[in-house]
Amino acid sequence: MEMTLGSTWWVACGILVAVELSTGTFYLLMLALGCAAGAVASHLGLSESRQMLSAAVIGGAAVAACYLLRRNALGASPAGANADANMDIGQTVEVASWEADGSTRVKYRGASWQASYIGSAVPGPTPGPYVIRAIEGSRLRLDHQEAL
């Protein structure tokens, strides 16, 4: 049995789906859609260049749509407040005391950091555990730790 170009497209589609299942990246499924479009174009008798064009257009459009939908659903947050971009976001620090202006110094990862309070506690923040919500330059932005 001879391997046709349409079969090659389906094999590529299957490989992309298998890799996606092992990595969890949804974008590979979109590229698999492009390979499926190439396979369908092959079965319709289109030339190799038209098959590649259909795979590229469908796969690329699916990736772009997936990216735009995900970005709009998650909301574009700045890197300083995005836990996906900065591993420090969401970590807990212990505050011993606060200054009158809402600033403090905390020990975090073996260093002393300047920090400021971003919550709305009245009359002001109290000592205790706080969560890093953002990092602006070398200053941690802290808020109250949420109860579990």
Automatic annotation (TrEMBL):
Organism superkingdom: Bacteria
Keywords: Membrane, Transmembrane, Transmembrane helix
Transmembrane segments: 9-40, 52-69
Protein name in the entry: NfeD family protein
